[in-house]
């Protein structure tokens, strides 16, 4: 008499070997495109010609120090403006009942994402050049007598970066505002609070994790900008990314380029750790979505 064959029962969870096989492609990609370049970056930064002294050479250079300072300061200015304007736009997008207003705000927010980087920079070049739209308009209105020098300035860099970074603040903040019940504001107003105080005491504390998460996102992206500072700012607003490009392609100093890259990573890491410290890992993750 044949014994009945025993079939293996279905399991709702993967075995360790199966899970390892599923994530193996990701591990390979991460090792090749993330881990290996990072190790090579550190090896170059702490390698020839002076090892750890490469960092001393970087900070002994006035141009390098000025570039790093300009990068951090300009990115901070852009971040403050973007988060402040983004918070207002995101709340208007959440609270308005007008479909036309919502459509106009959404179009203004998504437009930078639909345009190429070079096209966006070219638009600001047309706006800010000596005989561009801004100078012509101000001259026609009688505000100025002769064209202002707007292009190749820090102002042009900040304006261009703010326009490009706005969606990265509006979208996370809108995702946070959607979770806030508008009835809470009406309840606060019914208790005697003004609209401004209701927004300050009710909405702001609930949206704080989203505000901090947006601040971290915007700042970390800003410090790595290259095209906008080069084309709109030139020598007046040098960014570390342009310094890295010069070290690699013009000066042929890979060690200094690696040092600048490591310093940018350190700045980004400190900003991220500061955000996690203030809001917590779980709240930051929910705010980012």
UniProtKB/TrEMBL annotation:
Any one GO CC term of the record: plasma membrane
Membrane association type: Multi-pass membrane protein
UniProt keyword Transport, yes or no: yes
Major location category of this protein: membrane
CDD domains: TM_PBP2
Keyword list, A-Z: Cell membrane, Membrane, Transmembrane, Transmembrane helix, Transport
Keyword Transport: yes
Transmembrane feature ranges: 12-39, 68-91, 103-128, 165-185, 206-227, 257-279
Subcellular location field: Cell membrane
ABC transmembrane type-1 domain segment(s): 68-274
GO biological process, one term: transmembrane transport
Gene3D superfamilies: MetI-like
Family: Belongs to the binding-protein-dependent transport system permease family. CysTW subfamily.
Protein name, UniProt field: ABC transporter permease
């Amino acid at each position: 008499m044949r014994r009945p064959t025993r079939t293996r029962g279905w399991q709702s969870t993967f075995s360790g070997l199966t899970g390892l096989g599923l994530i193996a492609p990701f591990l390979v990609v991460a090792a090749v495109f993330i881990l290996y370049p990072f190790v090579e970056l550190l090896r170059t930064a702490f390698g020839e010609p002076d090892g750890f002294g490469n960092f001393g050479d970087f900070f002994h250079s006035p141009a390098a120090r000025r570039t790093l300072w300009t990068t951090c300061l300009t990115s901070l200015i852009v971040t403050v403006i973007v988060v402040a304007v983004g918070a207002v736009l995101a709340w208007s997008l959440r609270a308005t009942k007008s479909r036309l207003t919502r459509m106009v705000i959404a179009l203004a927010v998504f437009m930078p994402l639909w345009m190429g980087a070079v096209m966006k920079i070219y638009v600001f070049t047309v706006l800010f050049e000596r005989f561009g739209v801004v100078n012509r308009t101000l001259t026609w209105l009688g505000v100025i007598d002769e064209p202002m020098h707007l292009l190749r300035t820090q102002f042009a860099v900040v304006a261009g970066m703010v326009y490009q970074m706005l969606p990265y603040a509006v979208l996370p903040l809108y995702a946070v505002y959607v979770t806030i019940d508008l009835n809470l504001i009406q309840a606060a107003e019914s208790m005697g609070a003004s609209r401004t105080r209701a927004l300050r005491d009710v909405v702001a504390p609930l949206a704080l994790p989203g505000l901090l998460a947006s601040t971290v996102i915007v700042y970390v992206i800003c410090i790595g900008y290259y095209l906008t500072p080069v084309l709109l700012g030139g020598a007046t607003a040098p960014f570390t990314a342009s310094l890295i490009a010069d070290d690699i392609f013009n000066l042929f100093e890979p060690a200094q380029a690696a040092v600048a890259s490591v310093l940018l990573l350190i700045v980004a890491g400190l900003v991220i750790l500061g955000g996690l410290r203030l809001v917590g890992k779980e709240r930051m993750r929910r705010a980012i979505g």
